[in-house]
Design a protein that fits this description.
This protein has five helices and six strands, in the order ααβββααβββα. It has helices spanning 10-24, 30-38, 95-99, 102-115, 151-179, and strands spanning 44-55, 58-70, 81-89, 119-130, 136-138, 143-147.
Length: 181
């Protein structure tokens, strides 16, 4: 915020390194090389999703980067698009956690707005541990979760985004007013 780098820690840096290795399809790390064999691949990696929603008279532009994306077939009875998200971490992912993941709801909302169809959503979790040396490393396991969203969940997400956009705009007006007194 305000030009800062934001918060990071060693687990986040490890996750970013694994993400980059997945995108490249190669790694110098033995465990990550192993993971690359078992992780699902997508036609488009680091796919940029975009959509626009109306909030009152204003438009709010949505943007997201899906780790993996495969478009659906453009027919009425078409297969749905697939959106995948790779996760590392020590906190266990469960089906319930995948079903409640707001990040995937946001991605599905963008897909629904831009294509008129919802997506099949996936979490690909690579559990990590902290070794005796204090370093984060993957266990070598991949746990996959498939989930989907109900239309009402997308509508609720859109409402949350609209509310946040209105609050940000109101705060921005206050700050601008203070700056230009």
């Amino acid at each position: 915020m305000r030009g800062g780098d934001g918060f990071t820690n060693d687990a986040m840096r490890y996750g970013s390194k694994v993400d980059k290795d997945i995108e490249l399809g190669e790694s110098e790390d033995k465990i990550t090389k192993h993971l690359l064999i078992f992780l699902p691949k997508y036609k488009s990696m680091q796919h940029e999703g975009r959509a626009v929603i109306k909030v009152g008279k204003e438009e709010v532009k949505l943007f997201g980067k899906y780790d993996g994306y495969e478009p659906g077939v453009p027919r009425r009875d078409a297969q749905r698009s697939k959106i995948g998200d790779y996760k590392t971490g020590m906190i266990k992912w469960t089906q319930k956690r995948a079903d409640e993941c707001d990040q995937l709801t946001y991605y599905d909302l963008m897909e629904w707005i831009s294509t008129g169809k919802q997506s099949d959503l996936f979490i690909h979790w690579m559990p990590t541990v902290r070794g005796h040396d204090g370093k984060i490393r993957a266990t070598g396991e991949v746990v996959n979760f498939q989930t989907s969203r109900k239309l009402v969940e997308l509508i609720r997400m859109q409402a949350r985004i609209g509310k946040a956009a209105r609050e940000i705009s109101a705060r921005y007006e206050i700050i601008i007013g203070e700056v230009f007194k």
